[in-house]
Amino acid sequence: MANYYSIPNKFNRFIILLITLAPFVAYVLLGLLKTDYGKNITVLMYLGVILIFFYAKKGTPVKFPKYVIFYLLFTLYTYISEFYLLDREFKLLYLVSNPIAASLLALIIIENIHIRTKYMNVLLKTSNVIFIVAFIVILLQQILGQEFLTNPDYMKSWGGGDVTESRLVSIYSYIGDAISTGLGFVPIFIIIVEVLGKQNKQKKMLLYILCGVMFVFLTKARWILLNGLLVFLLLFMNNRKNLSQFYKYLILIPIIFVSSLVLLDAYGLETIGIVEDRILDKESGGVTKGSAGTRLLAIATFGKVYWDNPILGKGNIKYGMAGTGEQDYKLKKYLAGRSSQIHVGYLSLFYIYGLVGGLLFLFFLITILRHLYMNAKITGYFGPFVAFLGFAVANLTLVTFSIFETGLLLALIFDKYYMSMNNKQTNEIHV
Asked: Which GO molecular function, any one, fits this protein according to its record (predicted)?
């Protein structure tokens, strides 16, 4: 069987390695060769999926679990919404420029790939290198300026702000924006912390937690900080039989972190200013009037515009594959320049795709989280579940329906490996 699957396996393992190395691969492709990372990887994934179907052995069908089926239906609906309901012209380019389609391809590949400990050690060590490099780069961006190793095109669209408010994206700007940063870094952070904990490397684990929390803090994106704090949920789930250990981390980590902020501020990193200007949003009158204001606006606006198209949705007029770059008049009127969209993911989901598309996506999210949680109860590794939970939490404050992000896909790969390790009792992986 191993020889039979060798061709699609080798090719798709190569694709997964490229996704793991995404920040570096994207820099080469976009920064040096001026070609888009996402489109190139999507083309490779189409080939990978074709190989899976071509080499599928009779009696051993291609695996399509429930959550993949729901995401397949959701993906198809995005195309129906875009090109039938909105009556836009379809182009072949949209098959590779849609991150939702890329997400579907990645799910099919991950479900049907065969992986071993040696390969997973390569992915883990590669992820560890990326973690370290990402942490060093974001520190240097805070010290030297936001433009350090940042994609110039990103700076034109998202750059600006003083040292306490400028959003830092570390090494992820050649892939995308802050979403790629948060959903690329945090899942890797959570997975590495869990592996170190399982190896009983407590001091090293504590160091990684502090570096990870400092990273999400320096991004200055509240949703990334919230995702990063899910590491405490991981610590709780892995120490339920020894809560004294969890309480130790719960007390020790904040004390060391706050002390580090004070120390770094003394050396000119403006860390206290970040707390005041970004976390507490003092200039806007506090979090409830600043950040929360756009979310309250989203709720109010949703109630006024959703019922115009409750079943099929309005369509992704602005940000879709053939998006115009402008919201429809009614939504734009109610947003009144205070926000670029309905800034709550689940509300935006139902506004854009209606009850039909919204339920398909929610069914996908519920089934994949249940799948990861049930696997975690079997293997004892809760990292992939907690990492993917961050995607669900993120959509409370931002809008993203694509899981074509480095960290999320790696979380699924690690979950698959842990199940294989549990079934076959293979060797453990090491950082």
From this structure: ligase activity
Q: ∠ CA(364), CA(368), CA(373), 5° rounding?
A: 150
Q: Residue 416 in contact with residue 113, Cβ under 8 Å?
A: yes
Place of tokens 């996908």: 364
CA distance 71 to 369: 13
Supply the DSSP symbol for 63.
Answer: P
177 vs 158: CA distance, rounded Å: 8
Q: List strand residue ranges (DSSP E) for 306-358, in order.
A: none
What token pair was written down for 370? 């249940």
Whole-angstrom Cα distance, residue 233 to residue 324? 41
CB-based burial label for 72 (10 Å; 0-12, 13-18, 19+): middle
CA 14/CA 8 separation, integer angstroms: 10
CA angle 233, 237, 242 (to 5 degrees): 120
Q: Which positions ≥6 away from 130 have C-beta within 8 Å?
A: 20, 21, 23, 24, 171, 188
Exposed / middle / buried, residue 142 (Cβ in 10 Å: 0-12, 13-18, 19+) = buried
In sign, the C-alpha dihedral spanning 100, 342, 182, 67 is negative
Nearest-angstrom CA–CA distance, 429 and 431:
7
